[in-house]
């Protein structure tokens, strides 16, 4: 019937199969034949029931996101669903894989939904800064109740087939060949006879809605939205489903959707959706990959332990190597505790814990790493120690094994040069806690072989990481830009801002926390040791460390922490210390506003990003955004620093950088040439090739 839609008959049951790889998105070239097919089947008296199914790996995974922001071509999804609801004979959605967003909304237009046991169903639009715009907010609550619909729509998290069945979203769950089951199901339903009630006319989910409880839940979710508009709009739309007649609620949903789809926040989140997928692409996508069976991890400290867990959770057996039995046992005990916490929180079963623990093998002997296909080093941040480790690895690792370092700052070309196989050496820069944080900076060294790189990019996806390939420089993309962001923090304090004011400016911007709270959380001693090693100082932070104020771990840092809490309380002692230091330096305190805090911290961040792009350390501006959103908490509603620079205006950023450069003479404020080209062309990429 079309390249994207097939029509089959099994007796009196018609099967419409959408075939739009890779995820059967509801593009215009699907909607148009789908509408025609459904109208034809509605009017065909030889058809007793209609099944909507999908070819390939999944049911419809949503509207076609690439069409957003362009004029809508009719029929849109709403028109198709409205048409479906005029059909008197039974309509059945046959769901396998994922029925997401517009996919689930299409299924909600059917009288019945049947699912494969492994299917997942959800409305993830909120993750794109949107709400379900095809009637999902109005129909889902009619089946599963307002509070469950609210949770599903505001979280965007899909539910499994069994849960969907229990909640009333799905009418039957089958294992095995779904088509056979669904055809039998449809025929049986048709035989029993109607009338068949469309979801719009059902209300079993709404009957008992306790609006006070709903509003309490919605208020709680709104608090967690941290400045994002979409979760609030989602909650409003679901509330409308309870309080307004169907058509009014549907119209209100449409109006909210139209507002969101045109918003900067949704543009930012859609940018991130594609940016994450782009980041994982390497030139020459057919590069062969090496086989990775067992993974070795050297060092069972903070990072090594987390990295080992990340691989074990991804299904890889891990050999963990330490310098002594004592350090090894300490590391393994921490891993054990980590899993025990997951069990106590209910996120892991006891059985799964045992299976995961069985993946680990501890050792203090390098000879035990000879069967590893990838070895990740996470020992102390010291070039001499790293070189020694890589020298040993060079002697024992099997030919072709990939040798990776988790260094935060060190020169990976130099580490690679300490082996006779630099083509097998690269960086795998995990973020702490390594088993939780999504970001993985994959550092390509000068001599890294393409197949080694392709292998770890693929591996990253297998262990649930968001990978970004970066080049070698001090701090790579993330930590190098972090240093630029932090460069003015101390100056702002000395000039009159308090840690609380600075952190507040960050949280008002949408960050989960500001730089001082983050420093207290990570431990101020880490930066202190780093500065000492590099012959650098920081007036305030060094003094705090000399006083034993390392942050949360000592109960005191830039803030005070009551025993057993993580709530930062401003400390008059720290504020006095800052004033004394300022007086010593002859700096008179003044009032500093949030706008100045943002421009002196985030404009240099963008500027450093531009330099990184110029130097080819990152391949695309969007890769930098992926690093900052997934590794450092840059607000998703602003799309990452490079996307945000476009919203803010590169011209304005340059003007203010130049102003601060003139006032302070500091290099971080000197606008990068690429930033200037961005201001002229409006695009980082155009700038890069100009
Ligand atoms: N529209 C357009 N392209 C899409 C898409 C969509 N809805 N969903 C996925 N794609 C593309 C991806 O960009 C990627 O393209 P590429 O190969 O060129 O990079 C390709 O499909 C494969 O995607 P993934 O790499 O993500 O494949 P996975 O197998 O890892 O994941 C998935 C599959 C779970 C379906 C995941 O792609 C996903 O979550 N997709 C988005 C689902 C979504 O957000 N749906 C709601 C859309 S908004 C909507 O429906 C509005 C409506 O209410 C009106
Ligand atoms: P850590 O001090 O917690 O752990 C290091 C471990 O390595 C110790 O258990 C030590 O016994 C072991 N070790 C030292 N030399 C060894 C050797 N020759 N062979 C085997 N084991 C050895 O340090 P952490 O924080 O885990 O850092 C490790 C690496 O990860 C460093 O390069 C660091 O820069 C990097 N990193 C750290 C992050 C963090 O937030 N802590 C984040 C990202 C990277």
From TrEMBL:
Keyword Isomerase among UniProt keywords: yes
Keywords: Fatty acid metabolism, Isomerase, Lipid degradation, Lipid metabolism, Lyase, Multifunctional enzyme, NAD, Oxidoreductase, Peroxisome
Pfam families reported for this sequence: 3HCDH, 3HCDH_N, ECH_1
Reactions accelerated catalytically: a (3S)-3-hydroxyacyl-CoA + NAD(+) = a 3-oxoacyl-CoA + NADH + H(+)
Pathway the protein acts in: Lipid metabolism; fatty acid beta-oxidation
Tagged with keyword Oxidoreductase: yes
PROSITE patterns cross-referenced by the UniProt entry: ENOYL_COA_HYDRATASE (PS00166)
Signal peptide: none
Gene3D superfamilies: 1.10.1040.50, 2-enoyl-CoA Hydratase, Chain A, domain 1, NAD(P)-binding Rossmann-like Domain
Subcellular location field: Peroxisome
Stretches assigned to the 3-hydroxyacyl-CoA dehydrogenase C-terminal domain: 475-561, 597-683
InterPro entries per record: 3-OHacyl-CoA_DH_NAD-bd, 3HC_DH_C, 6-PGluconate_DH-like_C_sf, ClpP/crotonase-like_dom_sf, Enoyl-CoA_hyd/isom_CS, Enoyl-CoA_hydra/iso, NAD(P)-bd_dom_sf
Annotated ranges, domain 3-hydroxyacyl-CoA dehydrogenase NAD binding: 295-471
Family membership noted in the UniProt record: Belongs to the enoyl-CoA hydratase/isomerase family. In the N-terminal section; belongs to the enoyl-CoA hydratase/isomerase family.
Subunit details: Monomer.
Protein name, UniProt field: 3-hydroxyacyl-CoA dehydrogenase NAD-binding domain-containing protein
């Amino acid at each position: 019937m079309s390249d994207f839609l097939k029509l089959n008959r099994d007796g009196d049951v018609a099967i419409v199969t959408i075939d739009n790889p890779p995820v059967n998105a509801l593009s215009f070239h699907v909607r148009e034949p789908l509408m025609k097919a459904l109208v034809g089947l509605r009017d065909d008296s030889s058809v007793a029931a209609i099944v909507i199914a999908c070819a390939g790996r999944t049911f419809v995974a949503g509207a076609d996101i690439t069409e957003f922001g362009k004029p809508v071509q009719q029929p849109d999804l709403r028109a198709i669903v409205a048409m479906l609801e005029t059909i008197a004979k039974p309509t059945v959605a046959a769901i396998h894989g994922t029925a997401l967003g517009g996919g689930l909304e299409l299924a909600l237009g059917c009288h019945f939904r049947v699912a494969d046991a492994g299917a997942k169903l959800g409305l993830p639009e909120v993750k794109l800064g949107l709400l379900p715009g095809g009637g999902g907010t109005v129909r889902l609550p009619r089946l599963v109740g307002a509070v469950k619909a609210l949770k599903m729509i505001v979280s965007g998290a899909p539910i499994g087939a069994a849960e969907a069945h229990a909640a009333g979203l799905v009418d039957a769950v089958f294992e095995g060949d779904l088509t056979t089951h669904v055809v039998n199901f449809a025929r049986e339903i048709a035989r029993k006879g109607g009338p068949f009630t469309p979801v719009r006319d059902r209300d079993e989910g709404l009957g008992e809605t306790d609006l006070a409880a709903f509003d309490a839940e919605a208020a709680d979710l709104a608090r967690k939205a941290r400045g994002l508009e979409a979760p609030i709009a989602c909650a409003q739309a679901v509330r409308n489903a309870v309080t307004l007649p169907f058509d009014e609620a549907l119209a209100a949903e449409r109006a909210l959707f139209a507002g969101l789809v045109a918003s900067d926040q949704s543009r930012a989140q859609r940018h991130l959706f594609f940016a994450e997928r782009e980041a994982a692409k390497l030139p020459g996508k057919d590069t062969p990959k090496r086989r990775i069976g067992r993974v070795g991890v050297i060092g069972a400290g903070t990072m090594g332990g987390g990295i080992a867990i990340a691989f074990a959770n991804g299904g890889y057996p891990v050999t963990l190597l330490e310098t002594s039995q004592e350090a090894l046992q300490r590391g393994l005990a921490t891993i054990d505790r980590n899993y025990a916490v997951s069990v106590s929180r209910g996120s892991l079963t006891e059985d799964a814990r045992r299976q995961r623990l069985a993946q680990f093998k501890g050792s203090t002997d390098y000879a035990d790493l000879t069967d590893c296909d990838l070895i990740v080093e996470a020992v102390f941040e010291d070039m001499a120690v790293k070189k020694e480790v890589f020298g040993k690895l060079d002697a024992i690792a099997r030919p072709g094994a990939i040798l990776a370092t988790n260094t935060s700052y060190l020169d990976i070309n130099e580490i690679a040069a300490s082996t006779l196989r630099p083509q097998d050496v690269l960086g795998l820069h995990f973020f702490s806690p390594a088993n939780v944080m999504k970001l993985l900076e994959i550092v390509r060294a000068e001599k890294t072989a393409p197949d080694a790189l392709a292998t770890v990019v693929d591996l990253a996806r297998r262990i649930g990481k968001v990978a970004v390939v970066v080049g070698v420089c001090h701090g790579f993309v993330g930590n190098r830009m972090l240093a630029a962001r932090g460069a003015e923090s101390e100056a702002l304090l000395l000039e009159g801002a308090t840690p609380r004011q600075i952190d507040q400016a960050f949280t008002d911007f949408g960050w989960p926390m500001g730089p001082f709270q983050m420093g207290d959380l990570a431990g101020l001693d880490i930066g202190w040791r780093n500065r000492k090693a590099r012959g650098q100082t920081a007036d305030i932070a060094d003094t705090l460390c000399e006083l034993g104020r390392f942050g949360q771990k000592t109960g005191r840092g830039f803030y005070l922490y009551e025993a057993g809490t993580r709530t930062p309380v401003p400390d008059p002692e720290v504020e006095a210390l800052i004033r004394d230091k300022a007086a010593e330096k002859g700096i008179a305190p003044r009032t500093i506003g949030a706008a100045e805090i943002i421009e002196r911290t985030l404009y240099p961040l963008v500027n450093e990003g531009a330099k990184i792009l110029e130097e080819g350390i990152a391949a695309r501006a969007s890769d930098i955004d992926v690093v900052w959103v997934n590794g450092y908490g840059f607000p998703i509603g602003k799309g990452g620093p490079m996307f945000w620079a476009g919203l803010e205006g590169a011209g304005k950023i340059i003007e203010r950088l130049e102003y601060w450069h003139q006032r302070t003479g500091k290099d971080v404020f000197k606008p990068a040439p690429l930033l200037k080209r961005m201001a002229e062309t409006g695009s980082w990429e155009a700038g890069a090739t100009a």
